[in-house]
Design a protein that fits this description.
By secondary structure, the protein is mostly helical. It is built from 6 helices and 2 strands, in the order αααβαβαα.
C-alpha cells in the first residue's frame, strides 16, 4: 500500500489526500480519502497547499472625497447626476458620454469611495470635465 502511495506521489507531484485517494482508486487500489491522509501522515508526506492571496498594497494615500449627493435621490432633470459602479468602466466611455451630451454643465457624479475613483488620473478627468 505504501509503495502505491509513493508511486502515485511521484507521478502526480504534491498531491493531497483526496486527489491521492481518487488516483489510487482509478488505478485499481480502492481507498478513501481518510485512509490516504492517515497513510500520508505515516509516510511523513504532506500536500502542497496554495498560499494565501496577496492583495496589492498601494503606497498612495486614499483621498476621501466629499459626498455632494447626500442621498438626495430626486434629480430635477436629466444630466444633473451621473452614477458609477466599478464593474468595468473605462475612461473613454465616460469621455464619450460627456461629449455625446454636448458637455453638460454642473453635472454631479456619484460613486463609492473605491480606489479606482480616487486615483489622481481619474480625479483629473473629473476636474477637467467640470464634473462635481
Amino acid at each position: 500500500m505504501c509503495s502505491e502511495i509513493r508511486r502515485a506521489r511521484n507521478q502526480g507531484g504534491e498531491l493531497g489526500g483526496r486527489t491521492l485517494a481518487e488516483m489510487l482508486t482509478q488505478n485499481g487500489v480502492p481507498m478513501s480519502r481518510y485512509r490516504a491522509v492517515r497513510l500520508m501522515k505515516y509516510l511523513n508526506l504532506s500536500s502542497c497547499q496554495p498560499g494565501k492571496h496577496q492583495y496589492k498594497n498601494t503606497c498612495q494615500v486614499h483621498t476621501c472625497l466629499p459626498n455632494l449627493f447626500e442621498r438626495q435621490f430626486a434629480v430635477p432633470e436629466p444630466d444633473r447626476v451621473w452614477c458609477g459602479d466599478i464593474t468595468e468602466i473605462a475612461g473613454a466611455i465616460w469621455r464619450m458620454a460627456y461629449e455625446m451630451r454636448s458637455h453638460p454643465r454642473e453635472v454631479m457624479f456619484n460613486s463609492d469611495q473605491e480606489s479606482q475613483y480616487t486615483r489622481l488620473k481619474y480625479q483629473q478627468f473629473i476636474w477637467s470635465s467640470r464634473i462635481k
